[in-house]
Specification:
Elements: H1 7-17, H2 19-27, E1 35-39, H3 46-52, E2 60-61, E3 68-71, H4 81-84, E4 88-90, H5 97-102, E5 109-112, H6 119-128, E6 133-137, H7 141-153, E7 159-162, H8 166-172, E8 177-183, H9 197-204, H10 207-224, E9 225-235, H11 244-253, E10 257-259, E11 269-270, H12 286-290, E12 296-298, E13 308-315, H13 325-331, E14 368-369, E15 375-376, H14 396-407, E16 417-422, E17 425-430, E18 441-443, E19 446-451, E20 457-459, H15 461-466, E21 475-478, H16 483-489, E22 494-495, H17 505-511, E23 520-526, E24 529-538, E25 541-544
Length: 553
């Protein structure tokens, strides 16, 4: 493959690396690429996954990612039912490094600024463990569909997905985030081995153009980081102009930021301030310039992975005697969305209607999302709290409560999230977010469903993926090697006896939902993990509710 590399690229790399190191670098393009997947901690831990998966004994750990594993080229994990249950995400091994450096903790407010297609957002969500909030943004509208789906497939409950320019976000989220990931758009030199089409992209998108874009993104990101917060800047390119030079310029213009040195381990190497031109270090003291050596490079000749660069930056505290966000979290906590209930816990799933201001009743002229993508809230005030079908005619939130009363055994506690209705669509939104009015919103929170024209709540696929099996009253569960699981994933109608309720007889009588024959929704699972909804209409016929875009092809 090395013969297909652009001459301008190889000449530059030879000048930077020189001699034997350049030869090792070029030779790495003849080596087979490696493949990785990362276990989704929102669903299960690695030990549980290994006990379930046919890949469990064949994978090897990725040293810098606690939930990451190499798998063999011939395997097809994307076709297995466990992939469709969101148990893991297929991800290039080096791409797992930036989030590991970010030090995300439960309760943090995290921004993934250039998030599509969403792999790093799902990695962040796994570290948040359902608490705090992740705002996943991408400025390319066409990429946000994949971004939203990957977040939903992972079962993330505490995410908001936006389609905005960084400058627009900076006006809304000033000094708001504890952690920010800037996985910047770049010339993609580190991906040449993985994807040869990147070579053509490199020739079209100049390093100079990317550098200007990266500088602007970093400036806007800096405005959104809280004092004491951390920011990781990463690229998948080798170009010093897009890596060390960006950090040098940023440090020169932001004296309130400093580099947090990253130990060069796992075959990683230190950043190269010596590769910078004098013009790129203007305004930077020798001491500050030396800090750039605390950034890291991932070279394909040194690791099992593709090329990456990463820098960990921290904003100094304001020094005005007030607590930073880090101290606030330590002293009082800032959990805006409760962790998932442990097995057997029955939390009240109908909350969020009273004094949090979130139970918005739909008017006849419903809002929703306009053509510009900006949110239009439904008109109205507090919800009535009704849970009966007859009370839901103009109230999507009441329709949701009726569904939850009949179908769910507990999802979240009162006050941990806001119920928001935008037109007929209903979201659970993490507490504490600033108003999103005026922003292009793809997902205003966990999209749980919408009210149809008959006033009946229809549960969403993201609701199914975000639930645990025990949180639904009726479930069907097949093993991964049961043909019924694959038939369901292909969208087929199945004939299966309706399942029994996952409640006691007393609770069944109290809810008044024990009248045969059963008609309604069931949560379809594989090995105990949700795949989507099915719906019984009559007898044993299970109508397949899996959306077309989620099916196994």
């Amino acid at each position: 493959m090395a013969g297909f590399l652009p001459l301008a690229f190889t000449n530059k790399m030879e000048k930077l690396l020189g001699g034997k190191e350049y030869e090792r670098f070029i030779d790495s393009y003849q080596a087979p690429r490696v493949y990785g997947l990362r276990i989704n901690r929102l669903k299960l831990d690695t030990a549980h996954w290994k006990s379930l998966s046919p890949l469990g004994e064949a994978v090897r750990p990725i040293p810098w990612a606690e939930d990451g594993f190499y798998y063999a080229e011939g395997e097809r994990p994307g076709k297995h039912p466990h992939y469709h249950a969101g148990l893991y995400y297929i991800q290039e091994p080096s791409a797992m490094a930036p989030v590991e450096l970010l030090d995300v903790q439960p309760g943090h407010r995290v921004l993934d600024l250039c998030a599509a297609p969403g792999g790093k957002s799902t990695q962040i969500a796994g570290k948040l463990q359902g608490s705090g909030v992740i705002v996943s943004n991408d400025n390319a509208k066409e990429r946000t569909k994949a971004l939203a789906k990957n977040i939903e497939l992972a079962g993330v409950r505490n995410a908001v997905v936006l389609n905005e320019e960084p400058a627009a976000l900076a006006r809304v989220f000033s000094s708001w985030f504890d952690r920010i990931l800037v996985d910047a758009p770049c010339s993609g030199e580190g991906m040449f081995r993985k994807d040869e089409s990147m070579i053509a992209e490199w020739e079209k998108h100049s390093i100079e153009r990317c550098s200007v874009m990266q500088c602007s993104i970093l400036k806007d990101a800096a405005q959104m980081l809280a004092p004491g917060g951390k920011l990781v800047y990463s690229t998948c390119t080798f170009s010093p102009e897009e890596n060390e030079a960006q950090i040098a310029l940023f440090l020169a213009e932001h004296p309130d930021f400093e580099v947090v040195p990253v130990k060069p381990q796992y075959g990683w190497t230190s950043g190269q301030p010596d590769w910078l031109a004098e013009s790129e270090t203007a305004g930077l003291s020798d001491e500050r310039l030396a800090f750039i050596g605390g950034t890291v490079r991932l070279w394909p000749q040194n690791i099992e992975g593709e090329g990456h660069y990463a820098a960990l930056l921290q904003r100094k505290d304001n020094g005005e005697g007030g607590s930073s966000r880090e101290l606030e979290l330590e002293e009082a906590g800032d959990v805006s969305f409760e962790p998932r209930p442990s097995h057997g816990k029955r939390a009240d799933h109908r909350g969020g209607r009273g004094d949090n201001g979130a139970a918005l009743r739909a008017s006849e002229k419903r809002g929703g999302s306009g053509k510009d993508g900006k949110l239009r809230k439904t008109a109205g005030g507090k919800g009535s709290g009704a849970s009966r079908q007859s009370d839901t005619a103009l109230d999507p939130l009441a329709a949701w409560r009726a569904f939850a009363e009949a179908q769910l055994s507990g999802v979240f506690d009162d006050g941990t999230a806001r119920l928001q209705a935008y037109g007929s669509r209903i979201y659970l939104q993490p507490q504490g977010l600033p108003p999103l009015d005026g922003l292009r919103v793809i997902r205003a929170g966990w999209f749980i469903g919408e009210m149809n024209s008959r006033g009946v709540f229809e549960p969403s696929q993201p609701l199914a993926m975000g639930l645990r099996q025990e949180e639904a009253l009726r479930t069907l569960n097949w093993s991964a090697d049961d043909p019924s699981a694959v038939r369901y994933l292909k969208g087929e109608t199945l004939f299966v006896e309706p399942p029994k309720l996952n409640v006691s007889a007393d609770e069944e009588n109290e809810r008044g939902i024990n009248t045969p024959p059963f008609k309604g929704y069931v949560l379809v699972c594989v090995d105990g993990f949700p795949l989507g909804w099915g719906k019984y209409a009559d007898g044993r016929m299970l109508k397949n509710e899996l959306p077309a875009g989620w099916r196994l092809i």
